[in-house]
Amino acid sequence: MSELRARLNRRPWLVVPVALFGLLAAAAAAAATAAATAAAADAATAAAGSIGVGIQAGPVSLKTAAHPGGSYQLPAVYVVNTGTQDESVLLKIDRISPGHGRTVPPSWVHVSASPVRLSHNQSASLPLQLSVPATAKPGRYFSDVVAHGSGQIAAGQANLGVAAATSLDFTVAPGAVSSPWFRLPAWWLPALGGLIVLGAAAFFFRVSGFRVRIERRAAPGDVPEGQEHADVT
Amino acid sequence: MSRSWKLAAVLLPGLLVAGCGFGQSTTQPNGKAASLNLSLKTVPNVRSITVTPVKATFGNCAGGKQGNNTASTGSRLGYPNGICWVGETDPIGVYPIKITNTGIASFVYINGSSAAPSDGGNGWSLCNLGRDPATTCNGSRHRAPGIDQYVVKNFSPTGRPDFSGLSGTPECDREFGQRGRCWAGLGASQTEGFELIGPFATTDNASTNWTMTITWTPVPTDGS
C-alpha cells in the first residue's frame, strides 16, 4: 500500500484512473452480490414451490328430496391441484360456512375415491354417496364439502396448508323411502337362474333319449328273492 | 299357376319398384349441406387458493425467563410465554407468506392446529385472547397462554393485526379484503406473517421440536 502511495506521489496523473478502477470494481462486486442474493432467493422460492387446491364452485345438491332410510348418489365433486407440487386431495364433510339448515353429519356422506393423488394442474371428479339413516329428521340440510390438500410447505416449524370448500345441501322429506308393495328378496334371482339351468338339463336329458339303467346284481351266495324260506320246511 | 303364385307375381314387381323409389329418395340433393363449428370458452368456475412461502421460518424469538435458563434464543422459543415471529410487523414489515385466491371470488378463511411434539407427547392447543375468545387462555389473567397452550396471530401490511389469535375452526381471515371482510376476488393476494406466543409451561419436557399447521380455505359464503 505504501508502495502504491509512493508511486502515486511520483506520478499524480495516475490517481484518476486508479480511483475510477476502484469505483468500477466496487460497483461490480455489489452487483454480483445482489444478483447472487436474488438468485438464492429465487432458488429458495422455486425449491419451496407453492401448494394449492381447488374445488368446484357450484354446490353439491340432490335434485330430489331424500327420504329417511334411503341411499342416493350425489353428483361427483370436481377437485384440482392448483399448486406446483404433487399432493393428495382428501374430501371431508365439514360445516364451515354458516348457511341455513341442519348440519349434515359427516357419517351420512361416503367418499369412495378419496384421497386422490394429483400432480400440478391435474383434476379429478370424486363420487359421493349419501345414506340417510331411518331416524333422520325431515328438513333442509346444509354443510360444506371441503377438499384438503395434503401438500404442506414448512414455514419454520409451522406447516402451511390449503383447503377449498363448496356447499352441500339437500332436503329430507318425511316418510320412509318409497318402495314397491311387493319386494323379492335379494337371493331370488340366482335361485331362479339355478332352477332354470336344472330344468334345461333335465329337458335335454329326456329329449336326447339317453337312458341310465340301474339294476342290482345278485352277489355269489345270495339267496334268490322269494326263496329265503324254501329250505325250512 | 296357383292363386298364391299369381299373387306373388303381382306383388314382387311392385315391391321392386317401391324399393327403387326409396333408393332414389336417399340420393344427395345438388346443394351441399353446410355446418359451422363453434367453440366457446367460459370463465373458470372453481374455488381455489394457492400459498407460496418466500422465506418463512420462526425467528426473532424473545421472552422467557433468563433466571431459569429458559429464555428464548434466536429461533428457539423460551418459557414462560416466549414469543417467536415468522416475518416482522411494521415499521420493518416482512411478510413472508403469500396467499393468492386463484379461483372465483370467495371468502378466505384461516385456521390453525394444535402443536404436536416430535416425540408424540402432549401437544399444545390453541387459545385466544381478548373478548369472547373461542378458547380461553389460562395464563396470567387470561392474557397469556397457560400450560400446554399457545397463541398464533397473523398480520399483514393492511395493519389489521389479529389480536385474539387463530382458532382450530376456520374463520374469516381479516387480513383479506376491504374492512377485513375477508372477501377476495380472482387473483387477489395477501402477504402475511405470524406471531407465536408459547405456553406458560409445557408438560412435554423432552421435546424441543414442535410442528403446527396453518390452513387457508376459500369458502362460498360468510353467512351474512
Helix content of chain A: 25-40%
CATH architecture of the largest domain in chain A: Sandwich
User: How many alpha or pi helices of chain A?
Assistant: 3
What characteristic shape of chain B results from the CA principal axes? elongated
Q: Give a short account of the largest sheet of chain A.
A: 7 strands, mixed
CATH topology of the largest domain in chain A: Immunoglobulin-like
Structural class of chain B: mainly beta
Identify the CATH homologous superfamily of the largest domain in chain A: Immunoglobulins
* Whole-number count of domains of chain B: 1
Secondary structure blueprint with pairings:
The complex is a heterodimer of chains A (about 230) and B (about 220).
Chain A: H1 2-10, H2 15-48, E1 51-56, E2 60-61, E3 71-80, E4 87-93, E5 102-103, E6 109-111, E7 116-118, E8 123-131, E9 139-149, E10 153-155, E11 158-172, H3 188-208
Parallel strand pairs in A: 2-11, 5-9
Antiparallel strand pairs in A: 1-3, 3-8, 4-7, 4-9, 6-8, 9-11, 10-11
Chain B: H1 3-25, E1 46-53, E2 59-62, E3 83-86, E4 97-101, E5 106-111, E6 116-117, E7 125-126, E8 149-155, E9 171-172, E10 183-184, E11 189-197, E12 210-219
Parallel strand pairs in B: 7-8
Antiparallel strand pairs in B: 1-4, 2-3, 3-11, 4-11, 5-9, 5-10, 5-12, 6-12, 8-11
